[in-house]
Amino acid sequence: MASPGSSFWSFGSEDGSGDPENPGTARAWCQVAQKFTGGIGNKLCALLYGDAEKPAESTGNVPPRAASRKVACTCDQKPCNCPKADVNYAFLHSTDLLPACEGERPTLTFLQDVMDILLQYVVKSFDRSTKVIDFHYPNELLQEYNWELSDQPQNLEEILMHCQTTLKYAIKTGHPRYFNQLSTGLDIVGLAADWLTSTANTNMFTYEIAPVFVLLEYVTLKKMREIIGWPGGSGDGIFSPGGAISNMYAMLIARFKMFPEVKEKGMAAVPRLIAFTSEHSHFSLKKGAAALGIGTDSVILIKCDERGKMIPSDLERRILEAKQKGYVPFLVSATAGTTVYGAFDPLLAVADICKKYKIWMHVDAAWGGGLLMSRKHKWKLSGVERANSVTWNPHKMMGVPLQCSAFLVREEGLMQSCNQMHASYLFQQDKHYDLSYDTGDKALQCGRHVDVFKLWLMWRAKGTTGFEAHIDKCLELAEYLYNIIKNREGYEMVFDGKPQHTNVCFWYIPPSLRTLEDNEERMSRLSKVAPVIKARMMEYGTTMVSYQPLGDKVNFFRMVISNPAATHQDIDFLIEEIERLGQDL
């Protein structure tokens, strides 16, 4: 595929013209936004640069100015003397919006009111005085609101109320005290990019209907492959609907590489295939094996050490066992950043074994891939450059809005050969442009969402150094938490030593359990502590952090940090809140 060739699409700028901290640049972007969006651009810029008061929280069920307000003007004169007619949403329906005749003004008015709701939610997401969650049990929500779909349309006033209600009970995943999942935070540039993507509403299968987005995917995936360490960013890749699908792509292509006849003839034409991954790896490897007809019994789990890292000697032992049984080892999936412990498998040792036995090496770096952006922490992925394929989820550690998962493969053309079906109504061979930019035939999907623009625009806004600062801060916060609780009364670490990622795994021991002997009764009682504290967190709405058992270890808290809005004070708050909610257990 030929390079797009223009510096506009690349990352960073020598003159600092893309610097988000440059006030002149920021104001220039605001002027552009105001020119093309009118009141919406004014509101965004006022919020971003402090030219207006913080939006007041709405009260009641009626959206602000929803019942009756002036219709937005679309003329070029600001201010203007155009007559303003009142709009009453109670008498308007979706059929009154564009493309309806005379629909432009009510459309702008309606969208500006939707934007008001969204912007208030955005601002509240960063407000520590607001709840992370307004928790209600499923039956309560079902009884309190009518969620059923009806034959007759509702008016726009009711539609705005539904928008407010939905956000009222949504989890504020951008809140600085939300630590529940690997994907946290709310990046404003990424949010803007997501809005733009939805507005464009196109599909990623051909250049003719997504020209800019296809070019941005080419540029971004190439940059990611360069960072992995593949010479010149060579290879291929695609943005997929999450890390589980990216990992399945790895299994699919590894199988095709070894037995290309499987594409036409199916699994009956190939011998028993075996994949290997660590016992701490993501469950998606087994799901992928089930979906591809390989079978979950053909995924061999390799033992891990006490820190959750794959043991290379056990990997080699299990490979030899499989070969002795006449099976064919076709893939080893190493993990760079396990879901629970945040462990990094020894990639160099795994690469040596894969080379020795001619097995496809995949690295699931969905969680840990972001550390490649940090000069301080990228050593933890040493050896990733020797992989045949990599999963990397920017929607996790890099804070890109969901979803954004990249599957990257070192050998160019392999994805196309594996997946293409030559649909002539999409991929005509006599088009007037370079057909290598029609990327849809190498994907499993036909319809494919535009996921790249969020990452690309954030990268332009932050630069690589901005992502590096984000990641370094989150790792520093994790170390701060570890240093506080490792010797604090009432806490026990799940494993010894400083965590490699932002995963900090620990038990909180209530006063009633601190003098008990370490026996079955104590473990049984301890297993109930984390679930009760978590339930109380959600009912109070103060914070959220995950828990789980693992192997022979009873329920423990797994703290993860990927939100750059979090601070030392938020970590302190979490510790104090766990103690407040658990001291009576």
From TrEMBL:
<dbReference type="InterPro" id="IPR021115">
    <property type="entry name" value="Pyridoxal-P_BS"/>
</dbReference>
<keyword id="KW-0564">Palmitate</keyword>
<dbReference type="GO" id="GO:0006540">
    <property type="term" value="P:gamma-aminobutyrate shunt"/>
</dbReference>
<keyword id="KW-0472">Membrane</keyword>
<keyword id="KW-0449">Lipoprotein</keyword>
<keyword id="KW-0770">Synapse</keyword>
<dbReference type="GO" id="GO:0042734">
    <property type="term" value="C:presynaptic membrane"/>
</dbReference>
<keyword id="KW-0597">Phosphoprotein</keyword>
<keyword id="KW-0333">Golgi apparatus</keyword>
<keyword id="KW-0210">Decarboxylase</keyword>
<dbReference type="GO" id="GO:0005829">
    <property type="term" value="C:cytosol"/>
</dbReference>
<feature type="region of interest" description="Disordered">
    <location>
        <begin position="1"/>
        <end position="25"/>
    </location>
</feature>
<keyword id="KW-0456">Lyase</keyword>
<dbReference type="GO" id="GO:0000139">
    <property type="term" value="C:Golgi membrane"/>
</dbReference>
<keyword id="KW-0966">Cell projection</keyword>
<keyword id="KW-0963">Cytoplasm</keyword>
<keyword id="KW-0530">Neurotransmitter biosynthesis</keyword>
<feature type="modified residue" description="N6-(pyridoxal phosphate)lysine">
    <location>
        <position position="396"/>
    </location>
</feature>
<dbReference type="InterPro" id="IPR015421">
    <property type="entry name" value="PyrdxlP-dep_Trfase_major"/>
</dbReference>
<keyword id="KW-0663">Pyridoxal phosphate</keyword>
<dbReference type="GO" id="GO:0030424">
    <property type="term" value="C:axon"/>
</dbReference>
<dbReference type="GO" id="GO:0030170">
    <property type="term" value="F:pyridoxal phosphate binding"/>
</dbReference>
<protein>
    <recommendedName>
        <fullName>Glutamate decarboxylase 2</fullName>
        <ecNumber>4.1.1.15</ecNumber>
    </recommendedName>
</protein>
<comment type="function">
    <text>Catalyzes the production of GABA.</text>
</comment>
<dbReference type="InterPro" id="IPR002129">
    <property type="entry name" value="PyrdxlP-dep_de-COase"/>
</dbReference>
<dbReference type="GO" id="GO:0009449">
    <property type="term" value="P:gamma-aminobutyric acid biosynthetic process"/>
</dbReference>
<dbReference type="GO" id="GO:0004351">
    <property type="term" value="F:glutamate decarboxylase activity"/>
</dbReference>
<feature type="compositionally biased region" description="Polar residues">
    <location>
        <begin position="1"/>
        <end position="10"/>
    </location>
</feature>
<comment type="subunit">
    <text>Homodimer.</text>
</comment>
<dbReference type="Pfam" id="PF00282">
    <property type="entry name" value="Pyridoxal_deC"/>
</dbReference>
<dbReference type="InterPro" id="IPR015424">
    <property type="entry name" value="PyrdxlP-dep_Trfase"/>
</dbReference>
<comment type="similarity">
    <text>Belongs to the group II decarboxylase family.</text>
</comment>
<keyword id="KW-1003">Cell membrane</keyword>
<keyword id="KW-0968">Cytoplasmic vesicle</keyword>
<dbReference type="GO" id="GO:0031410">
    <property type="term" value="C:cytoplasmic vesicle"/>
</dbReference>
